[in-house]
Amino acid sequence: MPDEFDIPNIWHQFRNPVKTIARTLDFIAEYVRPDPLTRRNITVVCLSDTHCQLPPDGVPFGDILIHAGDMTDKGTVEEIQAQIDWLDGLPHRYKVAIAGNHDTFLDPQSRQTLTSGEQKQSLDWKSVIYLQDGTAELNFSHRLGDGTHDRIKVYGLPHIPACGGPEFAFQYARGSDTWSGKIPTDIDILITHTPPKYHLDLPDWSALGDEFLLEDVRRTTPLLHVFGHVHAGKSDLISRLRGGRETVRWDASERHFARIMGRGPATWLFAGWLDVYGWLLLGIAFLLYAVNVVRDHLGCETNATRMVNAALMYRNTGRLANPVQVIHI
């Protein structure tokens, strides 16, 4: 049985041509449209899913270091503290972390699966800012100094759609709405462990992200959204060409793309090729992308978010083979 957390094979993509072509169109459109994001001279270093390991090539320098969860394998205090100690020793001005589903101790409910002795232990976060449904304001007045935009606001929440046993932290039933209205409207950086649906989450295969998270990111449009969890979400062909990141413009073409990707899989061999409505949607998508490219080059403004799948674990191999992401905002 195929692993829903691994990249789809060529056979699956052959059976679902509309989704494959839609992703290709979206990829091309991103690179012919001008970058809509205003830079504030801040460098953000993004990583996730280290699973008790350290990046073999080290961590690039930057202003903010973000760890988007799954620091550990078994989620014990010993494992988590080792990762905290490593993060604390890095030279970045600010270090911000959230939990992932493997970080068992950090969720009071999953913590009960640890031994009684392990449950009574405690953590020292040192210089690491730990967010669990919380916001941090990072002061850059020494850099920005205009008095109005000299702080970077970061919000972090670790919850994921259920994918494991009781030892997995911060799970909720897939399809339930945990996100609507949750994200503050004035943040610059959003950190979650799960991806939003259809973005760097194997969208034409399992689409393992959360649809309600997508809606709330669409509502709040942060400058940067960092996540992980779906290791292979940056390993299929198009995501690899994107470098594990994408700029999402919140316009009609984005909503239409989600509509195409939300269609069910082909039920028999040539069903995807004979899907007349799917091909019609694809034609409309082409027109929407063309119109929005022209609008962008005419100077029409569009809210946008840079999304980053920061998972360092390469697929489910147990090796940290994905590069650390460096983003400038």
From TrEMBL:
Pfam families the UniProt entry points to: Metallophos
The organism's taxonomic lineage, starting at the top: Eukaryota, Fungi, Dikarya, Ascomycota, Pezizomycotina
GO MF term (any one): hydrolase activity
Domain of life: Eukaryota
Record key words, sorted: Membrane, Transmembrane, Transmembrane helix
Database matches in InterPro entries: Calcineurin-like_PHP (IPR004843), Metallo-depent_PP-like (IPR029052), UPF0046_metallophosphoest (IPR051693)
Entry's transmembrane regions: 268-291
Protein name, UniProt field: Metallo-dependent phosphatase
Keyword presence, Membrane: yes
Domain Calcineurin-like phosphoesterase, first and last residues per copy: 63-232
